[in-house]
Specification:
Blueprint: H1 7-28, E1 120-122, E2 129-131, H2 146-158, H3 163-174, H4 180-189, H5 191-206, E3 210-220, E4 223-231, E5 236-241, H6 247-253, E6 260-263, E7 274-275, H7 277-287, H8 293-307, H9 317-327, H10 332-340
Parallel strand pairs: 3-6, 6-7
Antiparallel strand pairs: 1-2, 3-4, 4-5
């Protein structure tokens, strides 16, 4: 800043600066700008500091801890040899348990490999060669035992681990090198035992008086399949099929029918004597709309949603109930006619 040449102008400048200083000092006493008292955005607001110690709970509850093992396989009793207070020898003093805790650890896991050598030779009597019989449970064939086979089936079928990752899991956790082809052979060899158990479960299902069934979609490879279930209180059989037709039901049940069959009203299961309550209620609402005002309200809601633009009008259940009371005594053929006459808008019109 260039100072003014004469004294009157200097006095005016000093007066202006003094007034500016007084204005700035007055602003120092104002509260800082925050999102609460100004247009400062919320992201610029600074939270106040809180005490580092957490607040105590208003209603504290008893702490939970891991219970001690009821029958630990190993125990270790540790006795004190010196006093923590004065250092005196207390090894000869009678001592009682003061604290008990468990230390849980996984033992080293490594494959248990048994080398079986069948010895033989030449018979001195008949001059023929002989060989020892293999011991029970260690017959020649697959080198993998039943426990390893069951573990592979569990990880593949229940946990859903892919074959490549399953091979890595067995190598990293157990130090067992096993190829994907060997895993496939293990799974393939389990077909017959599982089929036997499935037949036993099916026989238990068909021996009862009640049966429930349902189906849902599932992906098998790159195709859309259907997963069927037939079950009662303690047994269930799942069947994966390529189709949803009634042929799956006939193939499983044959000519047998339970006294009480619980299912939905899907065409493949229409031979049931008892249907799902929700499906049966909706069906009865279509057949006899005068009997159930709430079911009729549901179909009135569906009808109004189809006759209007849902992007512009939001119908509520209250409006649907009013519509249901209005159309409650309307015959079913009128509902069907109204649905067939649903207005269709031109693509791109926006109405």
């Amino acid at each position: 800043m260039t100072p003014p040449p004469d004294l009157p102008e200097k006095d005016a400048l000093i007066a202006a600066l003094v007034a500016r200083i007084a204005e700035l000092e007055a602003k120092l006493g104002l509260p800082p700008k925050t999102p609460d008292n100004s247009s400062v955005p919320l992201s610029k607001g600074q939270k106040p500091s809180e005490p580092s110690a957490p607040k105590g709970k208003a209603k504290p509850h008893a702490g939970a801890h891991r219970p001690l093992h009821p029958n630990p396989p190993a125990r270790r009793d540790v006795f004190a040899s010196a006093c923590q207070g004065c250092g005196a020898d207390v090894s000869c003093v009678a001592q009682s348990p003061c604290e008990a805790y468990d230390r849980v650890e996984i033992p080293e896991i490594k494959p248990d490999v048994t080398r079986v050598s069948l010895h033989g030779g030449v018979c001195p009597c008949c001059a023929k060669r002989f060989k020892a019989e293999p011991p029970e449970g260690l017959e020649p064939g697959s080198p993998f035992g039943p426990n390893l086979r069951a573990f592979v089936i569990y990880l593949r079928s229940v946990q859903g681990i892919p074959l490549a990752r399953l091979s890595h899991v067995l190598r990293d956790l157990f130090g067992l090198d096993i190829s994907e082809g060997a895993l496939v052979n293990i799974l393939d060899a389990s077909r017959e035992p599982f089929a036997t158990q499935t037949s036993l479960i099916k026989a238990r299902l068909l021996a009862g008086t009640a049966l429930a069934s349902d189906e849902t979609g599932m992906r098998v490879g790159k195709g859309n399949w259907w997963l069927w279930v037939f079950h009662h209180a303690d047994s269930a059989v799942f069947i994966a099929a390529k189709h949803r037709s009634k042929a799956v039901v006939h193939a499983f049940l044959g000519d047998w029918r339970p006294d009480y069959w619980i299912s939905d009203r899907y065409g493949g299961q229409m031979g049931c004597r008892s249907g799902c309550g929700c499906h049966r209620q909706l069906a009865s609402g279509w057949e006899k709309p005068r009997r159930n005002i709430w079911t009729t309200a549901f179909f009135a809601f569906v009808l109004t949603r189809k006759l209007t633009n849902p992007a512009r009008v939001a119908f509520s259940w209250g409006y649907a109930i009013v519509a249901a009371r209005t159309f409650q005594n309307v015959p079913l053929r009128h509902w069907n006619r109204r649905l067939r006459r649903t207005k269709r808008h031109r693509i791109g019109s926006g109405n």
